[in-house]
TrEMBL record:
The keyword Transcription regulation applies. It comes from Syncephalastrum racemosum (Filamentous fungus). One of its GO terms (molecular function) is transcription coregulator activity. Coiled coil: none annotated. It holds the Pfam family Med9. Belongs to the Mediator complex subunit 9 family. GO terms for biological process: regulation of transcription by RNA polymerase II. This is Mediator of RNA polymerase II transcription subunit 9. The lineage of its organism: Eukaryota, Fungi, Fungi incertae sedis, Mucoromycota, Mucoromycotina. One of its GO terms (cellular component) is mediator complex. It is found in: Nucleus. Keywords: Activator, Nucleus, Transcription, Transcription regulation.
Amino acid sequence: FQKDDFLFLRDVYRIVDLIQSGREQEEIGKAVAQLDERFDKARHILQELPGLQYNKEEQEAILEREMALLDNKKQQLKSYMALPPF
């Protein structure tokens, strides 16, 4: 995802500017609809993040388990590299 997917200030400012300048309701409605679409897109991105279903403690336990697995694999690789060539 892009950082811009979560920047809404510019859109809100545009809507406020349209309201203050007395633009047509249709134009303001379109701007609000665009902002709503951007909110939906950001919400969808957040829902698709991996691991969102886990709470902090579960995520930390998974991280600890994966780090231990990584350390084990590093040790195996180090042992393998220390073997003499055939």
